[in-house]
């Protein structure tokens, strides 16, 4: 087993029997287009909610139901994928972290990339349901608006806005730097760029491993991918503002 946050298609192909693979595309894609052998379907819209504990996190009982139906145990290593460069799959993994599930991995690339050299199937995956019990958020990952307010003037913290430049220019948190999450993705491979390229891009935005990094976007979807990428690179202090700009503006906090 690997401790990496991001795993290659070859690694996953060789280790499918030892992990729980989760497909977060729409159900019609899973059923009609095909999926990775052994993957279970947990569509993105089933774990996004306006009625959860914070941001768009699903209620605890809904999350437990989804993972129970998918046959996931709390100790399982979960590998998630989508067909959108990994951004929706990363959101699934961050949701798992919010509910205490630490063994999470992102498939480097997506379904379209997998198709190039690996087999797929339209056969249904046999799943034995479990009685999944969620835990508490993984320590040191999630921050709230008060934490972000306290970090605005901290020289050792870099606040990162992962939206596109036009959104950033329309209004952003004071002192934030703009790092569009797509800058970290290679359009050809549909996976993360090389480690050297990633480190150069991040350093160019002042995002270094020596800094405390706090991420936000609009509704915490796009920051999920950047969070996983930074943890993959070994950044030790990366934090996730689940409420993001939606909560920030609703509370009347300052925007530049």
Automatic annotation (TrEMBL):
<feature type="domain" description="Rhodanese">
    <location>
        <begin position="153"/>
        <end position="256"/>
    </location>
</feature>
<dbReference type="Pfam" id="PF00581">
    <property type="entry name" value="Rhodanese"/>
</dbReference>
<keyword id="KW-0808">Transferase</keyword>
<dbReference type="GO" id="GO:0016740">
    <property type="term" value="F:transferase activity"/>
</dbReference>
<dbReference type="InterPro" id="IPR001763">
    <property type="entry name" value="Rhodanese-like_dom"/>
</dbReference>
<protein>
    <submittedName>
        <fullName>Sulfurtransferase</fullName>
        <ecNumber>2.8.1.-</ecNumber>
    </submittedName>
</protein>
<dbReference type="InterPro" id="IPR001307">
    <property type="entry name" value="Thiosulphate_STrfase_CS"/>
</dbReference>
<keyword id="KW-0677">Repeat</keyword>
<dbReference type="InterPro" id="IPR051126">
    <property type="entry name" value="Thiosulfate_sulfurtransferase"/>
</dbReference>
<dbReference type="InterPro" id="IPR036873">
    <property type="entry name" value="Rhodanese-like_dom_sf"/>
</dbReference>
<feature type="domain" description="Rhodanese">
    <location>
        <begin position="15"/>
        <end position="123"/>
    </location>
</feature>
